[in-house]
C-alpha cells in the first residue's frame, strides 16, 4: 500500500484541478504509442497508427487517452486505496486483454512528462515526486492481478 503525506496529496490534487483531461490523456496515450511502438499491438482496432502524426491525430487514441486519464481522477479521489480502486481494471487488463504490466509504468512516466511540459515551473520537484509516487502506485495496483 502506498502512503501519501498530506503535502503529497495537496500537490497532486492542486495540479489535477488544472489538468485538461481530454488533451493530456490523448497526448499521453499517443506518446506512449509513438515512443514505445510495441504497445500498439493492444490497439489494432484503432485504425491508422502508421506514424507519429497519424497516432497523435487519431480520434480513437484521443478518446481512449481521455478514458485512461479519467481513471487517474479516480486514483486521486482514492489515493489511500489504489489497489481497491483499480481491482476491476487490473483483472480486465490481466485476464482479458493480456497487457504487459510494464506498460502501466511506461504510461505513468509518459504522463509525468506531459504534466511537466504543460505546467512548466509549476511542476516543481516536490510536485513531480508526488506524481511519480502516484503513477507508480497506480501501475502497481493495475499489475496486482498479475501476481
UniProtKB/TrEMBL annotation:
InterPro entries in the record: Globin, Globin-like_sf, Globin/Proto, Hemoglobin_b, Hemoglobin_oxygen_transport
Phosphoprotein found in the keyword field: no
Keyword field contains NADP: no
Domain Globin: 3-147
GO annotation, biological process: hydrogen peroxide catabolic process
UniProt-listed PANTHER family: HEMOGLOBIN FAMILY MEMBER, HEMOGLOBIN SUBUNIT EPSILON
Name recorded for this polypeptide: Globin domain-containing protein
Organism: Ursus americanus
Amino acid at each position: 500500500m502506498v502512503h501519501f503525506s498530506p503535502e503529497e496529496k495537496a500537490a497532486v490534487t492542486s495540479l489535477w484541478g488544472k489538468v485538461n483531461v481530454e488533451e493530456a490523456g490523448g497526448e499521453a496515450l499517443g506518446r506512449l504509442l509513438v515512443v514505445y511502438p510495441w504497445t500498439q499491438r493492444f490497439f489494432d482496432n484503432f485504425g491508422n497508427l502508421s506514424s507519429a502524426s497519424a497516432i497523435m491525430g487519431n480520434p480513437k487514441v484521443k478518446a481512449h487517452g481521455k478514458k485512461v486519464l479519467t481513471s487517474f481522477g479516480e486514483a486521486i479521489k482514492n489515493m489511500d486505496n489504489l489497489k481497491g480502486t483499480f481491482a476491476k481494471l487490473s483483472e480486465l487488463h490481466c485476464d482479458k486483454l493480456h497487457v504487459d504490466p510494464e506498460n502501466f509504468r511506461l504510461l505513468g512516466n509518459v504522463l509525468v512528462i506531459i504534466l511537466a511540459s504543460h505546467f512548466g515551473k509549476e511542476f516543481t520537484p516536490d510536485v513531480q515526486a508526488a506524481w511519480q509516487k502516484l503513477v507508480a502506485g497506480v501501475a502497481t495496483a493495475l499489475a496486482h492481478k498479475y501476481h
